[in-house]
Amino acid sequence: MRRCLDLARQAAEHAEVPVGALIVKGDEIIAEAFNQPIGRCDPTAHAEICAIRLASSVVGNYRLVGCTLYSSIEPCLMCAGAVMHARLDRIVYGAPEPRGGAVSGETDYFAALQHLHKIEVTGDVLSEECRDVIQKFFRDRR
After folding, report:
1. What DSSP assignment string belongs to 49-63?
2. Model pTM?
3. Catalytic annotation on 120?
4. Catalytic residue among 16, 48, 74, 97, which?
């Protein structure tokens, strides 16, 4: 998660909302990314999506079985859908996102019964540090 925080800070340096994500297979980081929708002019360029795209290229398959996604912030619904389609085994996230998160708020996308693939979710890892990075970013912009 500390590496996700570093990536989130890189996003902030590029005037992007500070979210960092990485994907681990076994004990190896196979992909890492930060939010880039502004720089790429792409609304889907969230850190999680960028990391999934890169990891898929690295392993040569769009299915990321045996992999874990780490994200500094709880994934949104779009990213949760990508995680499901990529067949990741696990998600670990830092701070909850009460307004746009797809796990800890009113919507728990991964708990839906219709999903055939089950994903293990662990939240609130270094949540205060992750929350501080994003809150500082928005405080400084005001």
Report:
1. HHHHHHHHHHHTSS-
2. 0.94
3. no
4. 48
Name residue 96's amino acid. P
Sheet holding 120-122, edge to edge: 28-34, 20-25, 67-73, 90-95, 120-122
Give the integer Cα–Cα distance in Å for 16 and 117: 32
> Using N-to-C axis directions, what is the helix angle for 2-13 and 47-59, rounded to 10°?
120
Distance CA 20, CA 123 (A): 15
> Strands, E, within 13-89: which ranges?
20-25, 28-34, 67-73
pLDDT single digits (tens) 88-125: 999 999 999 988 899 987 778 888 767 778 899 999 99
Query: What's the gap between Cα 93 and its chain centre?
Result: 7
